[in-house]
Specification:
9 helices, alpha/beta, elongated, phosphoric diester hydrolase activity, 11 strands, 5-stranded mixed sheet, about 375 residues, binds zinc ion, Purple Acid Phosphatase, chain A, domain 2
């Protein structure tokens, strides 16, 4: 009898040991799966992105010393959810994805500047002071960056409201957090940041003051680009900047009829491509677009707002790149643009982030395998 009991105890112990070992292995597999899908996948995908090559001496230029290269990341439409719209799980998930993608990109690619082309928040247009403060705090956590990387944000309609919702209060609280002015010059490259929501052209106070600033700035930049700058009486006494043509950064794209001519895997879906854009809502008005082109004669324009990719050529020579949304809430395949820029040239490439479908497929497949494993293991012998 005692012998039987002892055998029974040993068998029980062995069964318990086997079960514990199984659950330990199972726990480790689940842990490894989460680490892979929530951390490692970002490294694997972003590791494949490379800074594009750029010419450092302009063709035909007498200049011999190469122009320094600036490495810039452009992203748009992060739409950090506020307290009203969206489920808390959605907010948690999307912010985690953006945080991992941004932090991994900073670590692997070491950009010198990251520009966000508007709509960083989803509810900045109506959020209470308390909600705004909470949104800003989360933004600072998600997009934290080392001191050698600068983060510059352009205003979007979800940050300060569409033109009819925008007011001095909303604009000022945005500027208090993200004030970089209209001009940012570095390594001889001039970036002009336009508050495109204020390009309504209706003479509102904010719009008039913004236009006056831009006219002044365009005068400064155009004078600096003239070879006979000093002998031009219109330019006398004006501070000279780099002679490089500016790069315009804004939220609304310049006027285009629709996204019908946009190509690429992250352009607008077929059912949306032929929808006509509404001026002052989807894109800038024709008049405002023309003004910006006249004033600045930019060499490149980058914009957001449409959440999809597009490349447009204005006046047959000025390219505009629509940067797709950086949030998985808006796309299955978010991305950012990598730019190697000098004062004489630039080269851009796109870095895609992990597809949401891929991550979900990995989780689902792993879930099915785990269920099968448990079922097989728990079969009575
Ligand atoms: Zn927008």
């Amino acid at each position: 009898m005692t012998k039987h009991r002892s055998l029974y105890r040993t068998l029980n112990f062995l069964r318990f040991k086997r079960k514990s070992w199984f659950f330990l292995k199972f726990g480790f597999l689940v842990f490894a799966l989460i680490v892979f899908c929530e951390y490692i996948i970002y490294y694997l995908v972003i590791f494949q992105c490379r800074w594009p090559e750029v010419k450092t001496i302009a063709s035909g230029s007498k200049q011999q010393t190469p122009a320094p290269v600036l490495k810039v990341m452009f992203l748009a439409d992060t739409h950090l959810l506020g307290e009203i719209n969206g489920h808390w799980l959605d907010k948690l998930r999307r912010e985690w994805q953006m945080e991992r993608a941004f932090q991994t990109a900073l670590w692997l690619l070491q950009p010198e500047i990251a520009f966000i082309l508007g709509d960083v928040f989803d509810e900045g247009k109506w959020s209470s002071p308390k909600a705004w403060a909470a949104d800003v705090e989360r933004f600072r956590r998600v997009f934290r960056h080392p001191p050698h990387t600068q983060l510059i944000v352009v205003a979007g309609n979800h940050d300060i409201g569409f033109h009819y919702e925008m007011n001095t209060y909303k604009l000022q609280r945005f500027k208090k957090v993200f004030d970089f002015g209209e001009l940012f010059s570095i390594k001889g490259i001039n970036f002009v940041m336009v508050n495109s929501v204020a390009m309504e052209g209706d003479g509102c106070t904010i719009c008039s003051s913004m236009e006056a600033q831009l006219i002044k700035l365009s005068h400064l930049l155009n004078c600096s680009r003239q070879e006979k700058y000093h002998s031009n009486p219109n330019c006398s006494g004006i501070q000279q900047l780099s002679a490089s043509a500016p790069i315009l950064l804004q939220h609304y794209p310049l006027y285009r009829r629709s996204d019908a001519d946009c190509t690429g895997e992250d352009s607008a879906p077929p059912e949306k491509k032929n929808l006509l854009f509404e001026e002052r809502y989807d894109v800038l008005s024709k008049e405002a677009s023309q003004k910006l082109l006249w004033w600045f004669q930019p060499r490149l324009i980058l914009s957001g707002h449409t959440h999809s990719a597009c490349e447009v050529l204005h006046d047959g020579k000025i390219p505009e790149i629509s940067v797709p949304s950086f949030s998985w809430r808006n796309r299955n395949n978010p991305s950012f643009i990598m730019g190697s820029i000098t004062s004489v040239d630039y080269s851009l490439s796109k870095c895609f982030l992990p597809l949401e479908h891929t991550v979900l497929t990995i989780y689902c497949t792993a879930g099915i395998l785990v269920a099968l494993l448990i079922l097989t293991h728990c079969q009575p012998v």
